[in-house]
Design a protein that fits this description.
Helix content is about 25%, strand content about 20%. The two termini are about 30 Å apart. The mean pLDDT is about 85. It is globular, with a radius of gyration of 16 Å. It is α/β, with parallel strands linked by helices and about 200 residues long. A hairpin with a 4-residue loop joins strand 2 and strand 3. The longest helix has 17 residues.
Length: about 200
Protein backbone atom coordinates (compact mmCIF):
# COMPACT_ATOMS: atom_id res chain seq x y z
CA UNK A 1 0.00 0.00 0.00
CA UNK A 2 1.53 3.35 -1.03
CA UNK A 3 2.45 5.74 1.77
CA UNK A 4 -0.17 8.26 0.67
CA UNK A 5 -2.86 5.57 0.87
CA UNK A 6 -1.66 4.58 4.34
CA UNK A 7 -1.86 8.20 5.42
CA UNK A 8 -5.41 8.42 4.09
CA UNK A 9 -6.32 5.17 5.83
CA UNK A 10 -5.00 6.50 9.14
CA UNK A 11 -7.05 9.65 8.73
CA UNK A 12 -10.22 7.71 7.91
CA UNK A 13 -9.85 5.21 10.74
CA UNK A 14 -9.04 7.87 13.32
CA UNK A 15 -12.12 9.82 12.28
CA UNK A 16 -14.28 6.69 12.54
CA UNK A 17 -12.81 5.89 15.95
CA UNK A 18 -13.52 9.40 17.25
CA UNK A 19 -17.10 9.17 15.95
CA UNK A 20 -18.00 6.27 18.26
CA UNK A 21 -20.66 7.49 20.71
CA UNK A 22 -19.93 7.72 24.43
CA UNK A 23 -22.45 4.96 25.12
CA UNK A 24 -20.99 2.60 22.51
CA UNK A 25 -17.47 3.49 23.65
CA UNK A 26 -18.24 2.50 27.25
CA UNK A 27 -19.99 -0.71 26.16
CA UNK A 28 -17.04 -1.68 23.95
CA UNK A 29 -14.57 -1.11 26.78
CA UNK A 30 -16.62 -3.37 29.07
CA UNK A 31 -16.87 -6.05 26.36
CA UNK A 32 -13.13 -6.00 25.73
CA UNK A 33 -12.42 -6.30 29.45
CA UNK A 34 -14.80 -9.28 29.64
CA UNK A 35 -13.03 -10.98 26.74
CA UNK A 36 -9.64 -10.51 28.37
CA UNK A 37 -11.07 -11.94 31.58
CA UNK A 38 -12.27 -15.02 29.67
CA UNK A 39 -8.73 -15.38 28.27
CA UNK A 40 -7.32 -15.32 31.78
CA UNK A 41 -5.61 -11.98 31.22
CA UNK A 42 -4.01 -10.28 32.90
CA UNK A 43 -2.69 -13.03 35.13
CA UNK A 44 -2.51 -12.27 38.88
CA UNK A 45 0.79 -10.78 40.05
CA UNK A 46 1.99 -10.26 36.47
CA UNK A 47 3.69 -7.18 35.07
CA UNK A 48 1.72 -5.36 32.38
CA UNK A 49 1.69 -2.08 30.51
CA UNK A 50 -1.38 -0.20 29.34
CA UNK A 51 -2.01 3.33 28.09
CA UNK A 52 -4.15 6.38 28.77
CA UNK A 53 -6.77 6.53 26.02
CA UNK A 54 -6.54 9.52 23.68
CA UNK A 55 -7.97 10.56 20.32
CA UNK A 56 -10.86 8.10 20.55
CA UNK A 57 -8.77 5.04 21.46
CA UNK A 58 -10.49 2.16 23.21
CA UNK A 59 -10.12 2.87 26.92
CA UNK A 60 -8.32 0.15 28.96
CA UNK A 61 -9.23 1.74 32.32
CA UNK A 62 -11.45 -1.20 33.35
CA UNK A 63 -8.64 -3.63 32.60
CA UNK A 64 -6.16 -1.52 34.54
CA UNK A 65 -8.41 -1.40 37.60
CA UNK A 66 -8.86 -5.17 37.48
CA UNK A 67 -5.12 -5.70 37.03
CA UNK A 68 -4.35 -3.61 40.10
CA UNK A 69 -6.92 -5.59 42.10
CA UNK A 70 -5.14 -8.78 40.95
CA UNK A 71 -1.87 -7.50 42.36
CA UNK A 72 -0.31 -6.76 38.97
CA UNK A 73 2.45 -4.23 38.45
CA UNK A 74 1.04 -1.73 35.95
CA UNK A 75 3.09 0.65 33.82
CA UNK A 76 2.25 3.42 31.36
CA UNK A 77 4.32 4.69 28.42
CA UNK A 78 5.90 8.13 28.69
CA UNK A 79 7.42 9.78 25.62
CA UNK A 80 10.95 10.95 26.41
CA UNK A 81 11.99 12.17 22.95
CA UNK A 82 9.75 13.05 20.02
CA UNK A 83 12.76 13.67 17.82
CA UNK A 84 14.30 10.25 18.43
CA UNK A 85 10.93 8.47 18.83
CA UNK A 86 11.76 7.18 22.29
CA UNK A 87 9.61 6.31 25.24
CA UNK A 88 9.93 4.63 28.61
CA UNK A 89 7.47 2.99 30.96
CA UNK A 90 6.62 4.34 34.39
CA UNK A 91 4.72 2.68 37.26
CA UNK A 92 0.98 3.37 37.51
CA UNK A 93 -0.60 5.01 39.41
CA UNK A 94 1.90 7.90 39.53
CA UNK A 95 2.09 7.69 43.33
CA UNK A 96 4.18 4.54 42.83
CA UNK A 97 6.81 6.34 40.78
CA UNK A 98 10.21 6.95 42.26
CA UNK A 99 13.54 8.12 40.93
CA UNK A 100 15.04 5.54 38.58
CA UNK A 101 11.92 3.37 38.43
CA UNK A 102 10.99 1.25 35.40
CA UNK A 103 12.73 2.58 32.31
CA UNK A 104 13.76 -0.71 30.71
CA UNK A 105 11.02 -2.78 32.35
CA UNK A 106 9.59 -3.52 28.88
CA UNK A 107 11.77 -6.61 28.51
CA UNK A 108 10.17 -8.07 31.59
CA UNK A 109 6.53 -7.34 30.85
CA UNK A 110 4.16 -10.28 30.66
CA UNK A 111 1.48 -8.38 28.74
CA UNK A 112 1.57 -5.15 26.73
CA UNK A 113 -1.78 -3.56 25.88
CA UNK A 114 -1.26 -1.35 22.87
CA UNK A 115 -3.43 1.30 21.25
CA UNK A 116 -3.71 1.28 17.48
CA UNK A 117 -5.31 3.01 14.53
CA UNK A 118 -5.88 -0.06 12.36
CA UNK A 119 -5.19 -3.80 12.31
CA UNK A 120 -5.63 -6.92 10.20
CA UNK A 121 -6.16 -10.61 10.99
CA UNK A 122 -2.43 -11.34 10.71
CA UNK A 123 -1.68 -9.11 13.67
CA UNK A 124 -0.27 -6.24 11.62
CA UNK A 125 -0.90 -2.89 13.25
CA UNK A 126 -0.71 0.74 12.25
CA UNK A 127 -0.42 3.42 14.88
CA UNK A 128 -0.13 7.13 14.43
CA UNK A 129 2.99 6.72 12.34
CA UNK A 130 5.80 7.59 14.76
CA UNK A 131 6.79 3.98 15.48
CA UNK A 132 7.27 4.29 19.25
CA UNK A 133 6.10 0.74 20.01
CA UNK A 134 7.97 -0.81 17.07
CA UNK A 135 11.20 0.81 18.23
CA UNK A 136 10.76 0.05 21.92
CA UNK A 137 9.88 -3.61 21.36
CA UNK A 138 12.22 -4.22 18.42
CA UNK A 139 13.94 -6.98 20.42
CA UNK A 140 10.84 -9.15 19.86
CA UNK A 141 11.65 -9.41 16.16
CA UNK A 142 14.68 -11.52 17.07
CA UNK A 143 12.87 -13.87 19.44
CA UNK A 144 12.18 -17.37 18.14
CA UNK A 145 10.76 -19.16 21.17
CA UNK A 146 10.43 -16.71 24.05
CA UNK A 147 7.10 -14.97 23.57
CA UNK A 148 7.09 -12.58 26.51
CA UNK A 149 5.71 -10.01 26.50
CA UNK A 150 2.44 -10.79 24.75
CA UNK A 151 1.66 -7.80 22.55
CA UNK A 152 -2.10 -7.35 22.57
CA UNK A 153 -3.82 -4.54 20.71
CA UNK A 154 -7.11 -3.07 21.92
CA UNK A 155 -9.47 -1.62 19.34
CA UNK A 156 -13.00 -1.19 18.05
CA UNK A 157 -14.10 -3.70 15.42
CA UNK A 158 -14.50 -0.84 12.93
CA UNK A 159 -10.69 -0.47 12.95
CA UNK A 160 -10.18 -3.85 11.29
CA UNK A 161 -9.09 -3.79 7.65
CA UNK A 162 -8.54 -6.61 5.18
CA UNK A 163 -4.77 -6.33 4.91
CA UNK A 164 -2.00 -4.00 6.07
CA UNK A 165 1.55 -3.76 4.76
CA UNK A 166 4.33 -5.14 6.93
CA UNK A 167 8.00 -4.16 7.00
CA UNK A 168 11.04 -5.59 8.76
CA UNK A 169 10.78 -2.74 11.26
CA UNK A 170 7.28 -3.71 12.39
CA UNK A 171 6.57 -5.76 15.50
CA UNK A 172 3.49 -7.89 14.85
CA UNK A 173 0.90 -8.20 17.60
CA UNK A 174 0.12 -11.52 19.27
CA UNK A 175 -3.52 -10.56 19.02
CA UNK A 176 -6.13 -7.83 18.93
CA UNK A 177 -9.24 -7.73 21.12
CA UNK A 178 -12.33 -5.79 20.07
CA UNK A 179 -15.88 -5.66 21.36
CA UNK A 180 -16.73 -8.43 18.85
CA UNK A 181 -13.96 -10.90 19.49
CA UNK A 182 -10.29 -11.83 19.41
CA UNK A 183 -8.15 -11.62 16.28
CA UNK A 184 -4.68 -12.81 15.31
CA UNK A 185 -2.71 -15.66 16.88
CA UNK A 186 -4.43 -15.05 20.20
CA UNK A 187 -7.72 -16.26 18.73
CA UNK A 188 -6.33 -19.72 18.02
CA UNK A 189 -4.25 -19.95 21.18
CA UNK A 190 -7.09 -18.96 23.50
CA UNK A 191 -9.97 -20.55 21.54
CA UNK A 192 -11.59 -17.14 21.16
CA UNK A 193 -13.07 -16.19 17.80
CA UNK A 194 -14.43 -12.90 16.43
CA UNK A 195 -18.21 -12.77 16.32
CA UNK A 196 -19.74 -13.50 12.94
CA UNK A 197 -16.69 -15.14 11.37
CA UNK A 198 -18.17 -18.65 11.30
CA UNK A 199 -14.82 -20.05 12.42
Amino acid sequence: MPEMDLTSLRRRLRAARRAVSACDRAAAALAVDAKLRSMGLPRPQSRISAYLADDGELDPANIVRRALALGCEVYMPVITSLRHRRMRFEPWPPALRRSGAAGDAARWFDLVLTPLVGFDESGNRIGRGAGFYDRHFAFLRHRRTWQRPLMLGLAFELQRVEMLPSTTRDVALWGIVTECGVHGRAAAETCEKPAGTGQ
